[in-house]
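## tool: complex_structure
## caller: assistant
## args:
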Amino acid sequence: MSMSPIGPGGPSLPQQRRIVTEIPGPASRALLERRQRSVARGLGHVLPVFVTAAGGGILVDADGNSLIDFGSGIAVTSVGNSAELVVNRVIEQVSQFTHTCFMVAPYEGYVMVCEELNRLTPGDHDKRSALFNSGAEAVENAVKIARHATGRDAVVVFDHAYHGRTNLTMAMTAKNMPYKQGFGPFASDVYRVPMAYPFRWPGGPAACAAEALDVITGLIHTQVGEQNVAAVVIEPIQGEGGFIVPPDGFLPGLAQFCADHGIVFVADEVQSGFCRTGDWFAVDHEGVVPDLVLTAKGIAGGLPLAGVTGRAELMDAVHVGGLGGTFGGNPVACAAALGAIETMAKEDLPAAARRIGDILLPRLRMLAEAYPAIGDVRGRGAMIAIELVRPGTLEPDGAAAAAVARACHAAGLLVLTCGTYGNVLRFLPPLVMSEALLSEGLSVLEDAFAALPATAH
Ligand SMILES: Cc1ncc(COP(=O)(O)O)c(C=O)c1O
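## result:
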């Protein structure tokens, strides 16, 4: 493979973990101090180091440490950081023009991304797409479109859902702290129903799909009224809520219920989409065809872009001028998306994600045998997680998850936590990560468990 011509980052960056100072080192500590004096406190960070270069699955910090990236900037750099085709197309585009606003003077790149979205998302019906800047904006616009097309108001969402930080998406997000605390009042006509969460379903995993569908459809009938529901919005695998994989049969059942009642079925694939789970989209796993599919994160190799894609009759129900935004579908972000999508197809990244799952899952299951604090190992493709509990119970152990994450960070492995109870460690490596680097990352994780106090085992 020819390598990207510029920068210390990109795929030519040595794919090796190398720790030369404590984490954070002196240069990062100095930057952290400046950060504290200049950046609002409300923005947290996971890893206390400042990045100066990144490529493939490696982050280099200001002190020259090279860390393994099991986070991909929260499922964004699936094609690897500064991937060659993304960089090349961005450079070409940025030197041609940077912005016109698609609503002012259109350009081909926007149309090409919409064509790709219409082609790649599930279903061979007539589709249209619209582009935005962030996942939250895609969710907001899906609700606008569904309400406009159906003439209904209600939106149904799930326990453990995460849809963003804008006012409507905060209302749709389940977890209070840190996302909602003190930020109300929230948008109305949002109704929450239980999620099919096999590990925690009272009737057990085998009964979860059927029982959850019964409960959900019953609640919608009695508390909202099917005829009032514009949209059911669901993450096919929940992300921030804890990488919750619904049991087989649940999503098809929910989609059928929506179809039976004229409800727009919206798949929020912002985190699970674009090859992450081993298919182009997580709903592909069971052949579910949503009415609207929401994309962001992995779509553009690290540049901000999001999409709403769906049935032409729904998307085109909105009057001219009813959708848009100054930056949505910016030409540089569109160029990056075309480079990222080309990389995904050329390098068969759905297969790469499945291979990552095949490497991670057996090692994590072995770890769970050794440490009963690991109550559940779950996920698909390269969207994998372990849920930590007090051994022998379902009681969440967020402190153990935080301790393991801190130990990994100190040893040069970036892992993220998630979950309503903060007790889930999630693994989202770039899909181009080599087996050697994955394996080394897993060894760091195994060492972190070995270092946990015995009471947490
Ligand atoms: C499923 C899902 N939807 C929406 C969002 C919001 O996306 P953004 O942070 O780009 O607004 C996220 C972000 O984590 C997400 O995981």
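## assistant note: The first helix runs from residue 26 to 38. DSSP finds 13 helices and 15 strands in the chain. Handing back to user.
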